[in-house]
Amino acid sequence: QVQLAESGGGLVQPGGSLTLSCAASGAISGIHYMGWYRQAPGRQRELVALVSKGGLKTYGESVKGRFTISRDNVVNTVILQMNSLKPEDTAAYYCTADDNWGRGIQVTVSS
Fold first, then answer.
1. 8-12, 15-19, 26-30 — which is least confidently predicted?
2. Exposed/middle/buried for residue 30 (C-beta within 10 Å: 0-12, 13-18, 19+)
């Protein structure tokens, strides 16, 4: 089993930045994809960004050009740098590693 520990959420003003971090532990040797999804109240969970073990990155359309995902395979951590945040980025953000999920962390963008 894989455990995922998320950190870095919070409240930020529109136009601001936040960095989310997710550290994986446990049965991690076979993990291929790591990344983030998000879910706002009343909406379906949507892709934010994924990165493969080899470094291939995929972004959701609404975050392209603003968010950057990176991964450190030595310490099994994935980082999401979020810039130019908008109120519509407000959601619970969930770290994922293949079929494993974190508990979620809240990001609120508001003035």
1. 26-30
2. exposed
Number of H helices, E strands in the chain: 0, 11
For residue 82, the surrounding DSSP H or E stretch is strand 77-82
Report d(CA 34, CA 73) in Å as an integer: 10
pLDDT in tens, 35-55: 999 999 999 999 999 999 999
pLDDT for residue 69:
98
What is the rounded CA–CA span in Å between residue 54 and residue 73? 9
SS (H, E, C) 4-32: EEEECCEEECCCCCEEEEEEEEECCCCCC
In angstroms, the CA 52 to CA 42 distance is 29
